[in-house]
Structure formats: structure tokens, C-alpha cells
Amino acid sequence: MKTISNFNEIMTNIQTLDRYLYSQVDPEYDFALNLIKRGTCFVAAKDSDTYRFYPSRFIGYTDNSMDAHLNNDTKDGKETNPAISKILGGKPLSDPALNQEYAKYCEALGFAPRDKGTFGTERKFWVIENNN
């Protein structure tokens, strides 16, 4: 799959994940929850005083969907993270305050977050203002 090349493609993928979450219809809903549970690097979208979190391995591929993601055998944060970093102008960073916001978001979605991301690594975040 092709990695994203502009901010609008990030927003398109954010809208796709939001649609899966808000519909609460499986299998898309369960798919979205599992992406959030297992993620390590996230685009953190700030909306007013709350955050929503979107995993880079999903957000980083053009026009991604559940089917495309599940059929992408080569998906890798080593591809998506640099693409997102280039668009957003910086690498994702560890941030204890954002990690607490991530935990609140997980709890609002109905599950307890893991202590760390996949492979026991610290979660990292890019932040965007989301005025949708």
C-alpha cells in the first residue's frame, strides 16, 4: 500500500476510524478497538479539551480501511511513522500527560489500556488540533 503524502489523507483515515468507532457495528468496531489497544505510535487529535488517538500503522496508509489493512501483509510503522512525521513536521514523542489522556480515551471506549505499547515499548504521539 502507498503511504500518505498530505494532511488531508491523515484526516480521511481519522474519519474512517471514527466512523468504525461511532457506528459500534462489528466487525469494524472491534477492529478499531483492537488497533487502539495494540498501538504504539499515535496521532493524538485534540478537540476542545479532549483527545482521540489514532494508530500510525492505520493512519499512515492512503485511503485505508479495515479490509485494506487486514490484507496488507507488509504494513509497518517503519513506513508509516516517517510519512506522518514528514507531514506533521516532527517525530512522535513520549509524553506522560498524553499517555494519561490515552488511558482516559481507552477507558471511555470500555477497556483498560496496556501499560505499554506493542513489544513493551513506550507510546509516542504526534498532536494535531482537530476542529471537526
Q: What does it look like?
A:
The protein has 132 residues and is an alpha+beta fold. The chain is built from six helices and three strands, in the order ααββααααβ. 47% of the residues lie in helices and 14% in strands. A three-stranded mixed β-sheet has the order 2-1-3, sandwiched between helices. Helix 1 (7-23) packs across helix 2. The radius of gyration is 13 Å and the shape is globular. The mean pLDDT is 92.
Brief summary:
By secondary structure, the chain is an alpha+beta fold. It has helices at residues 7-23, 28-38, 56-59, 66-70, 77-88, 96-108; strands at 41-47, 50-55, 124-129. α1 crosses α2.
The major β-sheet equals: 3 strands, mixed
Q: In angstroms, what is the radius of gyration? A: 13 Å
Query: What structural class do helix, strand and pairing data support?
Result: alpha+beta
Q: Could you give the count of β-strands?
A: 3
Question: Could you name the key traits of this structure?
Answer:
132 residues, three-stranded mixed sheet, alpha+beta
SSE order and pairing:
Layout: H1 7-23, H2 28-38, E1 41-47, E2 50-55, H3 56-59, H4 66-70, H5 77-88, H6 96-108, E3 124-129
Parallel strand pairs: 1-3
Antiparallel strand pairs: 1-2
